[in-house]
Amino acid sequence: MAEAGEQETVSPEESTDESEEEESEEEPKLKYERLSNGVTEILQKDAASCMTVHDKFLALGTHYGKVYLLDVQGNITQKFDVSPVKINQISLDESGEHLGVCSEDGKVQVFGLYTGEEFHETFDCPIKIIAVHPHFVRSSCKQFVTGGKKLLLFERSWMSRWKSSVLHEGEGNIRSVKWRGHLIAWANNMGVKIFDITSKQRITNVPRDDVSLRPDMYPCSLCWKDSVTLIIGWGTSVKICSVKERHASEMRDLPSRYVEIVSQFETEFYISGLAPLCDQLVVLSYVKEVSEKTEREYCARPRLDIIQPLSEACEEISSDALTVRGFQENECRDYHLEYSEGESLFYIVSPRDVVVAKERDQDDHIDWLLEKKKYEEALMAAEISQKNIKRHKILDIGLAYINHLVEKGEYDIAARKCQKILGKNAALWEYEVYKFKEIGQLKAISPYLPRGDPVLKPLIYEMILHEFLESDYEGFATLVREWPGDLYNNSVIVQAVREHLKKDSQNRTLLQTLAELYTYDKNYGNALEIYLTLRHKDVFQLIHKHNLFSSIKDKIVLLMDFDSEKAVDMLLDNEDKISIKKVVEELEDRPELQHVYLHKLFKRDHHKGQRYHEKQISLYAEYDRPNLLPFLRDSTHCPLEKALEICHQRNFVEETVYLLSRMGNSRSALKMIMEELHDVDKAIEFAKEQDDAELWEDLILYSIDKPPFITGLLNNIGTHVDPILLIHRIKEGMEIPNLRDSLVKILQDYNLQILLREGCKKILVADSLSLLKKMHRTQMKGILVDEENVCESCLAPILPSDAAKPFSMVVFHCRHMFHKECLPVPSMTSQAQFCNICSAKHRGPGSAILEMKK
């Protein structure tokens, strides 16, 4: 901490040694502030000798025997003239209502700040220490201890008189004392003792390590971390002691408690004060260094270290060198470290200065990051802790970050960060755009400009478009494509593009961009004309989107030349807007395109273009013969004579065969297959399709003198014509290729037919037997007859009312019931009796009879 007049707040860098300032990148853990106001006035005329801290106020003792009560800002609230000489120690109880003071001339005072109760005593030797009971405010705890050559305990009796008792003497001056709960710890020339006020027993003695140090020059520092943990710092040694309860079996004549040293380690410098910080320690150290020039020791700046205690060592967390006033003349005993437990405040007290150290908050963390130019981390920290930061604004940090990136020349990153930092603030966006313009980097910020919520002034967008138009046509086209057309004045940009086209009229990028601008401006005619000139793929989308069919009636050929498939699909999808007749007329001079259109029309609907089917015959014959035959098969509107004439002229055999067969001239069709195609398989297939015995006869007669044809017939006609008819007509001695295989195939086919018949017969017999058994089981089942059943003939109850009378009834398996006398008498020719109802309905056998008699 550098001293600069009456500067109150000190930056973290000034808290470190000059040799470390440039190299250290580690953030300090504490920040420092000089306690000013009333303290400044006091220390200009006097010197601080001791201080104690309460959560509500501070108490400062001076070398001229004054005690000042201060608020946390250092303003004087009360002043007490206690002695003309140095105040050695001040003690406060936990409530902050009672104060104990001792001085170098032997005076001891204990009094209430808000009550009249007092204790005054002057001893014949200097009193070095005083400690009042932490709960002195209670009537049962009116106790305090003082220390000079011996340690005295003062207690107030029931008659409000004070009585004293000696707790310890004979080991030199008592120089430090700390009271916590029921335990009092003090240090004399020999070591540290702990006394249990409840059991009135001394429970430990911790000897000091370095006996070569003068105890008056290097006093012991004590502090209680909690009610059972005492921290001792003496010379360069630190010990952490834990007070534990002794087990009942071990007590005998020993105290009920004992002390265990849980951690012990050495430090680099002499300890002037200790304080706990969570599980770490804050250590105020007195430093002596050797001058390189004179090789003599001198007093260096004191250090405030945060260390992490381990069992036999420690780890340094942070270390700050403090430039307190007058540090060159101070000794180890002149420094004191006091702390406020509730707020983690640490007070470094020296004769001419009081410095407050406190844990750094999020604002301090951001300050440090900004100072180290770690803007991104600072921005992230501010966003995470935006509810807790008080001195910083996220926007200010973000703007500083953008400026930093611009200064470094990282324009793209700076522009990208604008999106997050500037958000919806249109004024800031416009300011940043002008700033990027000044440095010639409008292109860098263009991809990140807001395009809605907020929308900037049209001039901003026009300025960027002009920048691209001057140097980057592709970038200009990209922006026009990406930006909504209402962001800028469209006519201004259109005029600028036209000016550039005067210099380069064939530039496709500019022409396409101009078409897009025309589209935004709803000037679709001009846009369509440019798209067709460029043969651009978006021409169809433009027509569909803006319903430009009236504009393309005279441009159908251009559209078909560009992409016939898409053009045809579009025309067919919109027949209500451009009629089939109109399209066919426009394509009259381009029959190949006319065919493409009519072919797709026919595929969609065989009847819509029926008036053009005659024309299509010639078109298919000329441009698409593979689809001619399917067309002839599917069309019911084409004139067969015209089609036959065209096919004859062009010698299209397959098509002619189909037309002849369709016109009923099957024999001519078969003859053409045999004579023109010489394809027996096709001839056989044709005969199968026609299924005409005379046609088979013609085929056999034509093939009888052609051995290859005979082989084909033998292999294929077995299931349609009796092969014997063919075999009998074969001339003796004719050599027929693969005759044996053909005959074997005929026999195999016959055998397969026999097997199929036998298999079907077996299945039929098995099914019949199964069904017969099922019927028999069904008919053998009993049928329930009760009083609810009636005779189907007379409709009287089937059972008599008097069950004792004899009766006779007939029940059929169809579950119809009759009185026997109600049934007709069977004929003489057939004794079988059938249900009258089922027989009338022709249900077949429904009527095995079940006769019941009684």
From TrEMBL:
Name of the featured protein: Vacuolar protein sorting-associated protein 41 homolog
Pfam families: Beta-prop_Vps41, TPR_Vps41, zf-RING_Vps41
Compositionally biased intervals (Acidic residues): 14-26
Domain RING-type: 791-839
Alphabetical list of PROSITE patterns matching this protein: CHCR, ZF_RING_2
InterPro entries according to UniProt: Beta-prop_Vps41, Clathrin_H-chain/VPS_repeat, TPR-like_helical_dom_sf, Vps41, Vps41/Vps8, WD40/YVTN_repeat-like_dom_sf, WD40_repeat_dom_sf, Znf_RING
Primary localization: cytoplasm
Record carries keyword Glycoprotein: no
Entry function: Plays a role in vesicle-mediated protein trafficking to lysosomal compartments including the endocytic membrane transport pathways.
CC annotations in GO: clathrin-coated vesicle; cytosol; early endosome membrane; Golgi apparatus; HOPS complex; late endosome membrane; lysosomal membrane
CHCR repeats: 568-712
